[in-house]
Structure formats: C-alpha cells, structure tokens
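Lab notebook page, bench 4
Experiment: in silico fold of construct C2
Operator: M.H.
Input chain length: 392 residues
Purpose: comparison with the prior construct
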Amino acid sequence: MSDVIPRDMKDNVFPVPIRYLDLSSGDVGANAPAIDTGLVVFVSEGLPVGQAYIEGSESPAALAARAVLPETVEHARNVMQAPIRNRDASLLICTKDRPDELARCLASIPKQSLSPAEVIVVDNASTGDGTRRVVEAAGATYVRENRIGLDYARNAAVRAAKTEFVAFTDDDVVLHECWLENLMKAFDRPEIGCVTGLILPGELSTPAQLIFETHWGFGRGYKRQDFGPDFYRQRAPYAVPVELIGAGASQAFRRQVFDDIGLFDVRLDMGAAGCSGDSEFWNRLLHHGGTCRYEPTAVSWHFHRKEMKGLAKQIRQYMSGHVAALLVQYQNTGNLGNLRRILVSLPRHYLQKLGKWLRKEATSDNIFLKDEILGCLNGAWYVLRRWKTPAW
C-alpha cells in the first residue's frame, strides 16, 4: 500500500494537533482565545471528560459546551473520590521485538496511583535479548513464551499472575497515572468480570494514524457502560457487537473468570488468525452470564502505526480476526447470529463499499477495501482448517 492520502483527508495538515484543556482553567473561559484545527480533549479532575475534532477556529467555551456532558464530569469526580477496595492486581504486558515501545510503556507504571502487586512481561519469542534487558532494567518479572501468538503469551501471563485481578495493556501504550486505580474501582459488583478503559491517540502525526483513529480507533466515549445478560440476549440474533466493550490494550479481569470459562483462544489474535482474542473472550464471558464494564476514567494513550503499509496489514489482521472470532463464537455457543454476520451482514456491507469504490469515491473509509475483504476470507479459512484444535 503506497502512502496515498485519500480524497477526504487531502486538506489535513500533519501532524494534527492534540490539545488538552482543563475545564477549570482560563483556557476554557469566556475570554479565552479561539483555538484552531485539531483534536481537543477537555479535562476535569485530571481526567479526560470529552473531546471534539475541529476545523478552522472556534471558541474553547463554545466547544466545551458542545463536547462535555455534565454527567461525565460528575462521574469523573465521583470516581476520583471513591475509595480503592480492590488492590490485589497484577499488570500484564505481552510483547515481541519492540523494546523501545516497551520501555516507554514500562516508564509510565511507577507513576501509577495504585501500584500493581507485580508487573509481568511475557516475551513472545523475540529474536534478540533487547526485551529481556528492558524488563530487567524496569524491575519487572520476565516470562518467555516461545509459542508464537499473542494469546499464547496472554495465557502465559495469566498463569504466572498470583493476584485476584489481572490488568492487561500493550507495549505501544502509555498509561494515565490513575489507570489501574480506576480500573480496580470499577469492579464494584461481583458479576463484573471484565473492565475496559478509554484509549486516546498518543499522536496523530500521519494520515495513517488519523485514518485509524477516525475509522478503527479504540475510544468508546466518555460514559460508563455495562454490558450484561440483557445486552447479550438482545443482540445475539445478529452477532453480539462485543467490539463496543473496548479494546484489549486496556482491560482487566477477575482472575477467577479464567478458571470458570477458560483462557484466551490461541487460534485468535496476532501470530494466529490476526485479532479478536479479547472480544471473543468478552463474548464468552457474556454467554456465561457475566458482565463487562467500560470505564472511561481508566485512561491510556495508544500510538497507532504511522505508515499506510503497516496500517493496511493491521486492517487485514483485524478483519481476519473478526471473522475467525465469529466462527469460534459459533463453535462455542451455537449462536447462529455469528454465521448471519459472516454470510449476510458483512457481504452486504462490502457490496455497498465496493459500489462507492467503483464510482471512484476513494475515501479514508474504503481505501483499504481490498485488505478488509482479503482479511475476512483469510480468517474464515484459518479457523476452518483448525476447527478441532484445542482452544488453549
């Protein structure tokens, strides 16, 4: 994939600025100067509570009135004032051949307001010893997993953990200082088996990063949401959209759920089908009557791929993993909605996208159409060849 900028992004100037404005500061007052094009994130109690993309120039006060809901500000205040009842948590990171990114992630851990009981880094068969050196320098626990695949590494991390709760992040993520604390505060009911957090872009320096954030980004908004049995039952006929729950780069679990419903399915995610090992696990948890919670005060920043070629590969992996996960979910639950999405919903979606592409309406939404379709086909073929393979 060449670095062609799609038609709807030709007027963007890179890098796209990301500004953080505190609602209590003069930067958002009635007399504050106007701000220009970019992503604006509003902060209260030290936490992001709303955001907006703007083009041209706009008053910060007017923008805040449109982008920030009073209830999100109140929720941030309530979370920050709530006591911490769950402290027994491990922080788990899986990595492969990215020592520089890993070092940046590990550097954000000592700043955590709730210190993890242990930090475990699983090295998924890196080719050199750079990963080990970074882990040892950070004082974390190093675990080697030579079977290539993110979910082999995740399962090794879970087995190594000794705590009541386990929190996962990725090596290309930087954590807000209250990330772990606020994840743990969200486990305030016994039926909540998983909590995910808000993920913001670490930078928007290139067209590839902006395309990802616009169409594939991890952010799920600024409202706490619970996904439980009612959500699962109502959405099951059309395949439960578990991607609404969050992203695997920011998630925590009660350790007990792995004993109850099993570990991550090693046919999925990077190094295997491509992606969606986390969303399949959320689907399984919901199927067994559990609840997943999205907690926007658990904040982190993800650094998206900068090059279009790398993004194209990532999108192939995403769609490959998505279709693979649908097949695995059908195998595990018998829910025909998963097959309906593969055989009806996705073909209809891509026929509509293909129509726009044939009319030469190449935009950031369909510039990777070929990669999406090839990914879907690869995911189906990958899992069907491994239909009887043990899940973990």
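Observations: The two ends are 34 Å apart (CA to CA). Residues 308-384 form one domain.
Next step: discuss at group meeting.
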